[in-house]
Amino acid sequence: MTDAADETPARGAGSRPGDGRRRRFLSPDAAFGWMSRLSACVVLLMLAALLFVLGEAAIPAIRDYGARFLVSSDWRPNELEIPKRDARGKLVFDGGEVVTEKIPPSFGALPVVYGTLISSALALLFAVPLSLGAAIFLVRIAPPRVRGLVSFLVEFLATIPSIAYGVWGLFVLAPLLQDHVEPALQSLLQHLPGFGWLFMDTHGRPLALTGRDMFCGGLILAIMILPIITAISRDVLHAVPRAQIEGALALGATWWESIKVMLAYSRSGLFGAVILGLARAAGETMAVTMVIGNNNQIQPSPFAPAQTMSSLLANEFSEAETVAHRSALVEVALILLLLSLAFNIVARMLFVGSSVQPSRAA
Amino acid sequence: MSILGFQGRRRLRNNAAFALCLFFTAVILAVLAAVTWYLLSIGFSSLTWKFFSEVPSGCTDADVGGMKHAILGTGVLIVLACLGAIPLGMSTGVFLSEYAAGSKLAQSVRFVCDVLAGVPSIVVGVLGYELVVVPLGHFSGWAGALALGFIMVPLVSRTTEEMLRLVPDSYREASYALGATKSRTIVEVVIPAASGSLITGVMLAIARVAGETAPLLFTALGSRLLTLDPRQPFPSLTAQAFVYATGPYEAQRNLAWGAILVLISLILILNGLIRLASRR
Q1: Which of B188, B199, B178 is nearest to B278 (CA)?
Q2: What tens digit of pLDDT does each residue of A294-306 get?
Q3: Owning domain of residue A323
Q4: Which residue segment(s) compose the domain that B39 sits in?
Q5: A window 25-84, beta carbon within 8 A of B
């Protein structure tokens, strides 16, 4: 790890100070430099440790389930005892007693991967139009003072901790959905052809609307990712050269048509903003755990309780007792980590060459 | 649409888009208002003197006790996290800005910092569990502090780097011209020149981790006892609020609302101080 930059001081100060002195094995000055270099290496090690420790702890699950882990939807941490059935599906009796058999625990991550993807997609569906609208408002409509105030308010949304959104969602949003919004939607849509499945479970029975479901999780996530998408798209749109807008207007474009020029010009940055929002939504834990209903089954209806990768971890990790259960949970954490790394890396690649720094905007 | 003609349609679309932008902004502000209104009004009504002065009594009715243990616990966890994260983060920031701004190593460290800042906090909790809780055999405050510190490091190092970059090179050159070594220049000239904004960066990181719950769930776990011993399961406002809010008792739920109001006030105060510091 020898770097040329070390030979000449990075900040452009002529020759290296202290060169004239007799070289000791390690002068205090050099020691300071090495210490700061060492801590930079520690930061690199932090990411390596994260990947290594999680990977190592997930080995039992990876070995036992392999790729099946991603496609199986069985999540049974405990042994299950069920009545034994013979080849024709009849119960087996032994002296008047039903014979039972034990099914070993089984772990499949499909329901939680599905839950994470769908809840994040719902969140984007709600948040992206709102955020883009607000970003356009901030860049092209609002006078400077309003812009400052609205920006501040939107950024305030970002400082509210996840647990606060969780408590609000649990005691305000979920009851509102249960008592008013979902029944209204149900009476509106239920009898329209093609919408019936929204209110059925997997067995075709009507769902009990609880307000704590995928829909509520998506809404809470949408509220939580509004600030990051708004802030970054605001900066991205702000960086569009004036000549682009003025050129469009000079050609006779309406206000909206000039906005479309802006959107087209900055599409990769806007896409990056959306991906960063997606990464945030996928990793978000507390608020989702409190409102999504925590049910480890794949249900097509958004009004059915669900589970995400992070809410599964929050619910089960501290109570996992067997090695198999714990390592399966760690594998879920590993999948979540890799997913969020991928999202973040893709998003950052979209900002390469742009003057917008997403880490500052967020 | 044909009655409008081409120009009419353009005008209509233009006005509709304009109105929609206003409407969407209004929706976001309305959501913000709805969230803060409930957090403030219910939170305030559950804040009493007992909230700050008592620990949980074990009862679940009106005598439920307070959150003194959790307030103290959050404070201790933040201090412990800072003790590890601030030296490491700042020293990394110094490296990025002063020693090797353009090197391969610096670029990869910068990239890793940005990526680490995006790691879901619950995953960091799993790391704390595997690194500390498993070897020790039980949940502990150390594990919680480690997880919070882990989250702080990339934030502190990136802000430190950016703040040090803002110090003009002439400061460094003047110091070198007086014969100071590089380390002395950094410690006595560059860092003091940026001290205000460095403190800002640290406070931003504190404001971020003060509200974290997920990384504490299976590291510090939470506790109903007033404790200062980080070798034991450790209380925190956020974890206690989670337990109370998801529990069945009305009195405990009220405490959860109160805990959240205290947290948000703490974060707002930190942000206010940041604004004050950066204005100067």
Answers
A1: B199
A2: 988 898 889 999 9
A3: 110-361
A4: 5-45
A5: 27-29, 31-33, 35-37, 39-44, 46-47, 49-50, 53-54, 57
